[in-house]
Amino acid sequence: MRDEEKDRRGRPGPPRLALGALSGALAGLAALAVAELVAAAVRPRSGPIVVVGGASIDATPAPVKDWAIRHFGTDDKLVLQLGILAVLAVSALALGALAPRFRRAGAAGVLLFGAVGAAAALNRPDSVGLMDALPSVAGAVAGALLLYGLVGRLTAPARPTARESGAMTVSAEPAGGQPASEAWDRRGFVLAAASAAAASAVAGAVGRSLDGSSGRGAVASRERVVLPRPGSPARPVPKGAGPRVEGISPFVTPNQDFYRVDTALVVPKVDANAWRMRIHGKGVRRPATYSFDDLLRRELIERDITLTCVSNEVGGPYVGNARWTGVRLADLLAECGVKPPSRGGRADQLVARSVDGMTIGSPVEDLMDGRDAMLALGMNGEPLPFAHGFPVRMVVPGLYGFVSACKWIEDLELTTFDSYDPYWVKRGWARRAPVRTQSRIDTPKPFARPRAGAVMIAGVAWAQHRGIDKVEVRIDDGPWQEARLAAEYSRDTWRQWSIPWRATTGGHTLTVRATDRTGTVQTDRRTRTIPDGASGWHSVVVTVD
User: Fold this and answer.
1) Is the confidence at residue 1, as pLDDT, over 50?
2) Alpha-carbon span 282 to 129, nearest angstrom
3) Whole-angstrom distance between the N-terminal and C-terminal Cα of the chain?
4) How far is Cα 496 from Cα 488, in angstroms, rounded to an integer?
5) What percentage of the chain has pLDDT greater than the value 90?
6) What is the mean pLDDT of residues 307-324?
């Protein structure tokens, strides 16, 4: 026999492998729909896709994470979610195909996936207890029961129709030699499968609706925010800070273009009205808790600051400059009685915790040395976008984001580097990471084919909290030529640069290097991003026609 078996009357039976796989797919769909529905009611971030995805991110070795960011950029989380869904789909199909022969084993397999999701939920840093396991458990039970029931329809005898019932009163033994009731329950299976699909679609839609409604309060709270005029406003950007060169990065990066690198599969939507942040820990003589309105009522500062992600490869895109509005972090710490180590303070590390459980450690000395470290409330003249940390995030000039730029903050704890390792340190990254002196060629792009003649080479350079003093460009193996620098806004922002080039036909390699205001020249030694940032010169290869 091929795919279809035959019943005892010789009529074709159900194609059990295909229908079993279909049953598995429907069971998987139902499990996810029920789980997401329950998660929307319990806590949106406790859904199985989110918790398993978060656990996968946490367990992924740092080099693999770096590879994912390098190849997928800000789409790395979407790729991970699609990967999880693909694994679940294949597993559901396999369990379904197995179930017609091993009915209980197939259902048990679905329950096992639920146990994995529950364990992941309970072990998340932001877990609030056993309720976080409920979505995965509820979804798995629903999926297991559905699979068990659907597969039962493939083996249960069909209910005789009225016509068959009449025939059976005349003869209990049809021409085929076996009772008609031996056939599989085709009608029952179709009805059950269709009902399950419809119910799953409804559950999924309701879950998404509830999830959306849970975030509407946060959206409304952001829309109501009116940032007060800063007591210490930013200086106007000088006209010469952004040269008019086609292809060069603008001095201010628009919010929608600003890079985003974090571990959050789902962007947290925090209601500013309910938000609270606590400052406590070692050396804190006066612990305090602040609301969003408390911060708004304080004197705000406004500064243009360039941020850089440690995962930025040489010449990479994960750097941007924005105008940030916020509260001086050093003032808040001082009010709580905190002193830097140089003045006898007991704590040398500030651990910031976000609502999703992320922990980021920053040197207390750097936060209180006079630089414009802040708890930012605004970005480029508007409240922080959710993707960039609304309602409150940290911004610290001169430090890579993984040791300073905590988003969605809810807790600041003073401690020591010896007593606590934050998230990234546990995964092999450095405890301290000042931004390296770097430069990038924005135009021409790699493998461009400019015409021979006048070509403008241009780009950006940065060395936050030190400033850029000089940028040089080399054509092939020729001498270094000093580029023209745009006007400097501050030592905490990047600088645009440009240099004209009389391009000749053929292939050429363009290389750039920068020198910061301490006299340090950007090194040519190539290093990986791990553990404290990439180094090396950026080069592009072009072919001049």
Assistant:
1) no
2) 27
3) 67
4) 9
5) 75
6) 96
